[in-house]
Amino acid sequence: LAASPLFRAVRELHVPSDSAALLASQPGSPPHGILDALPHLETWIVSIRRLECDIKLALGALKPDPAPDAHGRVGVACPALGTLVVRLEDERQIAYLRELLEHRARAGYPVRRLVVGFVKVVDDAVYACAQELTAVQGVEEMQVMRYDEDEPVEFMWREKAPRGCWDRAEEHQYWQVWP
Q1: How many other β-carbons are positioned within 10 Å of the β-carbon of residue 18?
Q2: How many Å apart are CA 154 and CA 170, to the nearest integer?
Q3: What is the pLDDT of residue 3?
Q4: pTM score, two decimals?
Q5: Quick check: 11 and 51 in contact, CB under 8 A?
Q6: What phi and psi, each to the nearest 5 degrees, are found at residue 89?
Q7: Angle 91-106/52-59 helices, nearest 10 degrees?
């Protein structure tokens, strides 16, 4: 699946929490799984609704390979990724996201626009911790959303899907390919 040319043209990807780890790694696939097949992905909207290990599975594939290849280049999944919209649960996940962003920036693949929200109500300390991500090298624009705030309209899947696909139940059911 990850080697399919179908993915090469993908520029924006919306991923519910349950599917995030599946995209990152599959049995028998390269370490980055499907994400390696998305060289033109510019925007990723993802929700992480579980413990710390899930953020490592879901977003860990975006971390650059620490060992350069024979030509001195660092391998990285989704090299064109410039915008990340992510919903998290706690400070541990924020700390992991910070580490990921710093690694990508040092390797020359910074995430320039970051939108961070939460999947549950968090206290002000967690909210403040997320706001500190503005100091990460490469982040030029950042927005932190509270639990009850929606993503900016430009990132809402309902704005991009045909009107007949607005039923949230269809996230877990088969539907025909959009025209």
Answers
A1: 13
A2: 21
A3: 62
A4: 0.77
A5: no
A6: -110, -35
A7: 20
